Each structure stands twice: as C-alpha cells, then as structure tokens.
What we know:
Oligo-1,6-glucosidase, domain 2, Immunoglobulin-like, five-stranded antiparallel sheet, binds alpha-D-glucopyranose
Amino acid sequence: MADAVGSPQTGIPWWHGAVGYEIYIRSFADSDGDGIGDLVGARARLAHLAWLGVDAVWVTPFFPSPGFDHGYDVSDYRDVDPRHGTLSDFDAFSATAHDLGLKVVVDIVPNHTSHLHRWFAEARKSRDSAFRDYYLWHDPAPTGGPPNNWVSHFGGPAWTLDEASGQYYCHLFLPQQPDLNWRNEDVRAEFDEILRFWLDRGVDGFRIDVAHGLLKDPLFRDNPRIRVADSAADNWGVFFSFEHCYDLDQDDTVDIYRRWHRLVEPYGAALIGEVALDDPVRMARYIGGGALDSAFFLQPPWMGWEPAALLDAIRGMHDREPNRVSWAIDNHDHSRSVTRFGGGARGARRSLAVTTLISCLGGIPFLYQGQELGIGDGTIAPDDLADPIATRNEGALGRDGARTPMPWEPGPGNGFTAGTPWLRADDRPHAETVAGQMSIPDAPIHQYRALLGTRRAHPELGAGPAAWLDTGSAEMAVIRRGSMLVVANLSADYATITTGSPPISPVFSSAKDPMPTAAGSVRVPPETTVVFATPHRADTQEGPAHLVDTETRV
Ligand code: GLC
C-alpha cells in the first residue's frame, strides 16, 4: 500500500487517499462459460486492478437473487448466488485482493429485498405475520387506488396491491423489490447481523445502495408535484417531476448510519453511501459526524458535456465536503461518460480530463470497469435490452449500454466468456480491449495508470488544503494543493497560465497535445487537465497561476 493511502499504523482510515474501482460482477469476468460474470473470474483479473494502481475494489451485489434488477433484488444477504460462485469463492477473491494490496468493498442493499426473500414471503402470508412489519404496508386510498402519489424510480407507482391481504406494499424500485420498514427495530437488528457476517469474513467496507432512501415519511404524505412530465412512459421524467421530500432523504435516516458506524469501526471498515442527492448541504449531512465515511456524489454521472455546469457541481460539493466525497463520472447506472461527452476520441478526451480533475480531489475517486479503456457504451440490439428500465418503459434505453461485458481481449466474447454473454452486445475491436491497449504506448489504459500513479506519487493531490483559484472562466478550474497545481481547462480554447518564475513542470496531462511554454507562462490545451508540481508551498501566499487567460481556439 502506498504512503498516500491510510493505514492502521498511522491511525488514518484506509480509504484516505485511496482510489476505488467498481466491478459490475455480471459483466466483469466469467470463469465457467455460463455467460454471467463470477467471483472466480473476477479473482483471476484482480492483478489488472493492482497493475492499474487502484487501492480498493467495490463489487456489485453477488448475493442470491432472482435477478429482476440484476442482483439489486437480494433474496439472501448471507450467501453467494450460484451463478456468481460460492462463499468460498468470495473468501478466495478477498484473500487474493488483500494479497495484492486491494481493499474489498461489498455492495449492501438495505432499502429493499427481493420479493422472494423469506421475510417478504412470510410477511405477505397474513396481516398477523411476525414479518409483516418488516415491510411498508398501507390500506388503499379511499378511492381504492394506491395510498399516495409516490412513483417508482423505474416507472409506475411505488405501490403494488397484495390481493390476498387487500393492502398495498411500497417499492421505490420494482414491485419485485419491496421496501423494508427501517422504523422497525427488528429490521435494524437483522442488518447489524448481516454487516457482522461480512465484516467477520474480512471485508473492508460497504457501498450502501440507496442510502438516502431507508426511511420514509411516517405519515406517507404525497410528494409535491413540481411539473407535469412530458410522457408517462419516461420513468425519469415522471420521477423528477416530483419533489421527493417524503419518500427519500428523511432527516433521521442518518441515525441508522451512526449505528452502523459504531458497529463497523472496530473492524476499521468504511461505509460509503450511495446518496443520490444533488444538494451538497443535504449530502454532507450523511458524511462524517460518526455516520458515513464517504458518499458518492452522483450529479456528474447524470451530466452530458456541459463544462461549466460540471465544474460548478463538482466545486459546489467539494466546497462543502473537501475530503470525504466518493467521486465518479461513470458507474453501472449511467451511459458511459465517453458517450455522454460526445463519443469517440473527443468523448474519451473529455472523460479523462474530468477524471483527472476528480482524481486530484480529497475523498475517493472511483473508476468503473472499462473506464480505463476510454470506451463508450456497448452496442446492443433493441430486442436484447435487459435492464428493467428498458423493458418496462416504451422507448427507454435503460442502463445496459454501460453494462456490456468487460472487453479483455480481441475476438468473440472479448475474453469475458467462452459462452454467450447474458447481455448480448457487439464485440469490441482490438483497440478497445485490455490486451489490445497494452501494446499501444499512448492508449488510454496507460494514461489512466499514469494518472493513478501521479496521485500516488503526490499525496498532496488527495489530502490537505485545496484552494480553488479564480480563473475568470466558468469552464476552467485551477486548484492549488500544497505544492501541486491542477489546471482543468474544459473550454474549447487554449488557456495561458501565468506561472512566474521559477517555471513549473507538468507531471501529468490528460491529453498528448503539446503544451507550449514561454518565459513565465504555459499554454494548456483545450479540454485538458494538467497536473503541475511547483516549487511553491501551500502555506505561503506566493504561488503560480495568479492569472489565467483563455485564448481563441488555434
Ligand atoms: C442503486 C443501484 C442500481 C439499482 C438501484 C436499486 O441505484 O446502483 O443499480 O437498480 O439502486 O437497488
């Protein structure tokens, strides 16, 4: 483990200064030819992550699941789905990761279970079941319909009628994902045991799915409607036409994580929440203060190429919480940033420029599998779409584009599987595979590795004070971190940085373009982030980059 990353010896948590990597288990590596990724396959590929220079691996849910939401509908929290392996495969995966110096973060799904979980099967047997109150039940509205106007993230109402008992149950996602009742102490106690089960197996942390959703308004009030969605078939359009003040982000949700924090602390494990809120103030409530160690800021993965808005969002979150955010622009829930940012070489260039910026912030920058290849979304025939968002909502593409198999090698199956992948997609060409890029010296895989190496070699990039300098341009950010200077020029023009004397030297640039230097200044290419080492220290007022000029495109 590099010095940049915390260790028990120093008393600094392991995630301090670390870089994470998300494995979408179904699509990462298949060892047995059934077309579904598994832990044995993933274990055999861990050396790639170590080579790349990441510190921690987050594995998406591998627990037994009927798979309506591809693993995010868990039917047993203490086992491994046979399609992904066995508990001993998990132990072997974890041991190999640790041997390679990688921390293991498992994805816990506490907001909802599968409808096939034993608790729900018992709960729906009768209104008097001991498990009834594990879930959220409600009588129909006086008109006979759902009890309130809450909608599912995946389209349709957030309530389904259980015909047998005549009551509705709540589900913020699919009807096959009933929401747990976190106001029930028994549910809290169950999850204490589930966390302990994995902690005792040696996991280093949890990514907490829908961490902002666990508690709901006890009165189940209607959410205020803020606009009318254009089409009822557009799940996100409908979802975002409401202010989610009663179904998400209740003030007392954070108390659950205070309890979890006390539980995980003796193990030195980290709690990293998926807190899908855009408001940095609401986000920050979950982080620190004995609650979560970190939380994903998920506004950037929703955004297209809007440089000013991207920088504004990142800076807004960073200002509020400089050292504990988990930063990502890609994950398994969104179209890949290369595609969102314009596709092809241009999208790849922009994606690395933004990844470079977030890799120079405190907290935990995360890469998503394949991001290091600079690739866009996979190509899938409309009939092969498998994401419930796509299959439930007419015309929606859903999230499959980011979930196509990890391209390891050229050729059929791309080295992901010897069989037929669960999600059929066009094979990737040679230059979009890990093996293919290895022999191309300036391929993205080497740039990403150099970027992570830069963060590791310069611990100041991941810790300590960070001052955002005034650039005079909404499409540029210049951050001074100790002796490091990070210049993110997301504009379409060159930008001249006045460096003064002595000159500063670039230690990493996200683009290969020449960077003309003149006495006392350096020109940073468009859509490029450059990391400089400077002779100046943070504790002095002097420093380079007092002045930034954007120029007309050359
Ligand atoms: C999270 C997961 C997503 C899943 C949803 C419901 O947002 O990242 O993949 O569908 O929760 O569990």
